[in-house]
């Protein structure tokens, strides 16, 4: 499996992974309509093309023999990197793909002298929260995000970057 920068020809596969992961992760939390609306907004072709073309953005995919099975989207903010999105196809959960995406993102940010990595996860995303805690992130704040007509709690995690992990 190769972890590499995303390209515009990966957009449909990124959308597929996002849809499958959101449906598996958030069906009981957000509901079908909110998931569909949010995916249409956050993962539209225009939005993803913009993310791929924006300076200071890191967008990685996990490519398994030509099949995109996960992705990670981050941005650089001063001396901090922010992970905005990280999802793996549910059929490939628990194979270490998310960890490999994280490691590559961390290494890329270290190359740009970033000092901290931050991630924001919906508070109700138990698997996502556990993932970041397992990687050594600490909860440093809480926030909110509006999707559809509702506001949802988020957890903000942070981790100092170093070469050891």
Walk me through the structure.
The chain has 165 residues and is α+β, with helices and mostly antiparallel strands. It has one domain: Gcn5-related N-acetyltransferase (GNAT) (Aminopeptidase), CATH 3.40.630.30. Helix content is 39%, strand content 36%. A 7-stranded mixed beta sheet has the order 1-2-3-4-5-7-6, sandwiched between helices. Helix 4 links the parallel strand 4 and strand 5. Helix 1 packs antiparallel against helix 2. The longest helix is centred in the N-terminal third of the chain and has 20 residues. The chain is globular and about 40 Å long. The mean pLDDT is 91.
Which CATH class? Alpha Beta
Which fold name is given in CATH as the topology? Aminopeptidase
CATH architecture: 3-Layer(aba) Sandwich
The overall strand count is 7
Question: How much strand content do the residues show?
Answer: 35-45%
Strand order, main sheet: write it out: 1-2-3-4-5-7-6
Write the layout of secondary structure elements.
Layout: E1 2-5, H1 11-30, H2 32-42, H3 45-53, E2 57-64, E3 67-77, E4 80-88, H4 97-111, E5 116-122, H5 126-134, E6 138-147, E7 150-160
Parallel strand pairs: 4-5
Antiparallel strand pairs: 1-2, 2-3, 3-4, 5-7, 6-7
Helix pairs in contact: 1-2
